[in-house]
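User: Can you help me understand a structure? I only have the sequence.
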Amino acid sequence: MKKLITIFLLFTTTLIYPAQKEIFSDGEYLEYNVSFWGIDLGNIKIYTDSATVLNGIDVYKHHVTMKSNPSIPFVSLDATFNSWIDTSYDYSHEFIGTEKCDDIVEQGHIRFLYDINRMKIDITENGKKVDHLNYYTKKNWNDGTSLFYYARKHVDDRQRIVVPTIITKDTSTTVFYFNGERESVEVDAINYPVKCVYFNGQALWEGIYGMNGKFQGWFSDDDASIPILAKMNVYVGNVRIELVDWKRKNWQAPRY
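Assistant: Let's start by predicting it. Here is the structure, written out as tokens:
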């Protein structure tokens, strides 16, 4: 009887508290193609730089680049983002984003000082400070990069989650609907259907290149939760963001 009770408790605990995902992988590299109705708009590259320490706090540093296809005249995008994310993958500690447009280089630097309930933002253009904001807050915040990892961690949570989000200097929220649906997804870079966890949500903010509104995502149904495909709204319409290349130790996409 005691053995049966132990087995039952282990089983129910597993249902309530699913296995911890292994999102962090030193040196992970993910590359995505961004397209609109088959037109190549550009690419996104996401790097896991390292586990490091920021002001005495253990963090993971991640680096993102976004570049538009130079042959597309109506799209111009060249941006880099660095995010120092808490090892829980639930919120960010620091963010630096740089966008180049013609002869102007704009940079936003956000410091999340949770110990004193402050969020400080500095914005510069061509190295000259043009704005400084000092928010009082008791919330934990996510930037655009840390949201990517937040979703990877929580995709199996089977609930609606509202996440405080800051984009450049605007405070808002991101709503995730994690329902646990499993679906088959096909992308050119993988020669078989990939088993994915589907979710959707809404960005109640406007990000780079007009990113806002409803979005959908399909992450690999495994401990890594690699984003395989996403659909998002930007200025030109609803774009397709598809995994085209990757580097992650011992990872293979799960077959559907």
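Now, to help you interpret it: Residues 171 and 179 are 26 Å apart (CA to CA). The chain is about 10% helix and 55% strand. Let me know which part you'd like to focus on.
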